[in-house]
Design brief:
Pfam families: ABC_tran (PF00005), oligo_HPY (PF08352). InterPro entries: AAA+_ATPase, ABC_transp_ATP-bind, ABC_transporter-like_ATP-bd, ABC_transporter-like_CS, Oligopep_ABC_C, P-loop_NTPase. GO terms for molecular function: ATP binding; ATP hydrolysis activity. This is Dipeptide ABC transporter ATP-binding protein. The chain is α/β, with parallel strands linked by helices. Helix content is about 30%, strand content about 20%. The strands form 2 sheets. The chain has an 8-stranded mixed beta sheet with strand order 6-7-8-3-9-10-12-11, sandwiched between helices. The chain is globular, with a radius of gyration of 22 Å.
Length: about 350
């Protein structure tokens, strides 16, 4: 782990036990063996279909959910097995912006009390200094000083999300999980929130794990992107590389579905339609989790899970990029292998 790495996840798993039904107790493999790292001041974007485990991964990293297996290193310290008491010290540095800006705010508290509460819990500052800090945070997120006495229901969705961001920043964290922070907002408000997050990152050097469905927005805000499918990280790399030249067949299909505002470009683009349904994380297929829908599936794909191969800074979990299939190393021989989806 380099000194510039703020977070490193190694083979992280989160399984949920489900009781009842004909078969009795079963296990949902929500996150299954994911590894990646986030640098200081970097945004790592996470994309994938609904139910692939993105939010579960974010909550497990913050220990909201206890990991089943694997390691979580924050600033070089393994926090995956820390007790609740020892983990309390890291709560200040690891924070989260929740998807629903209204459900995550206490309706009985004023805005001032909501933002001040984390500082009270962590015994930060004197009461006078906390009130001053609340005013500073309101200004940081673009709200007015008199908003401090209002309640959450008196604000719009965009303003409530700004309140949630201010509460997250109250503890001066080093790493924030942004769990679809713009999905419930209007398009114009989404841009404001994204600009706010980027501005805060530039000034304070905070690292983000940015979870979203909007591929264009993820590409815009992220330095690197990871693509998840059925609890697995199938591809990761630089944002421009993944967005313009995806390697994994699932990444290609996912990016081909992104809406394009230009109708002429949209008509000329080749849309990749995947056949079949997404398998249940309770009964995942043997071998590669994507082989049941992959147009390039081979016999070995159903027999064993592919390793994660590294190609010039990219990581991809697909047999097509194993040494056996990459005989021509120059240019990675990417397009000849997947020319059907280019």
């Amino acid at each position: 782990m380099s000194s510039n790495t703020v977070l490193e996840v190694k083979e992280l798993c989160k399984y949920f036990d489900v009781k009842g039904g004909i078969k009795g107790k079963q296990r949902v493999l929500a996150v299954d063996g994911i590894s990646f790292e986030v640098k200081k001041g970097e945004t790592f974007g996470l994309v994938g279909e609904s139910g692939c485990g993105k939010s579960t991964l974010g909550r497990t990293i913050l220990r909201i959910y206890e990991p089943t297996k694997g390691k979580i290193f924050f600033e070089g310290q393994d926090i995956s097995g820390l007790s609740r008491k020892k983990m309390h010290a890291y709560r200040r540095k690891l924070q989260m912006i929740f998807q629903d800006p209204y459900a995550s705010l206490n309706p009985r508290f004023t805005v001032g009390e909501i933002i001040e509460e984390p500082m009270v819990i962590h015994h930060m500052y004197t009461p006078e200094k906390r009130r001053q800090r609340v005013q500073e945070l309101l200004e940081t997120v673009g709200l007015k000083p008199d908003h401090i006495r209002r309640y959450p229901h008196e604000f719009s969705g965009g303003q409530r999300q700004r309140i949630g961001i201010a509460r997250t920043l109250a503890l001066e964290p080093d790493f924030i999980v942004c769990d679809e922070p713009i999905s419930a907002l209007d398009v114009s408000i989404q841009a404001q929130v994204i600009n706010l997050l980027e501005d805060i990152q530039k000034r304070q050097g905070i690292s983000y794990l940015f979870i979203a469905h909007d591929l264009g927005m993820v590409k815009h805000i992220s330095h690197r992107i990871g693509v998840m499918y059925l609890g697995h990280m199938v591809e990761s790399g630089g944002a421009d590389d993944v967005y313009r030249h995806p390697l994994h067949p699932y990444s290609k299909a996912l990016l081909s579905a992104e809406p394009i505002p230009d109708p002429n470009t949209a008509r000329s683009r080749h849309r990749i339609l995947l056949e079949g349904e997404i398998p249940s994380p309770m009964h995942p297929p043997a071998g590669c989790p994507f082989h049941t829908r992959c147009p390039y599936a081979m016999e070995e794909c159903s027999q064993a899970a592919p390793a994660t191969y590294e190609l010039e800074g990219r990581r991809v979990a697909c047999f097509l990029y194993s040494p056996r299939y990459l005989r021509q190393r120059e240019g990675l021989a990417i397009e000849p292998l997947l020319q059907k989806t280019s």
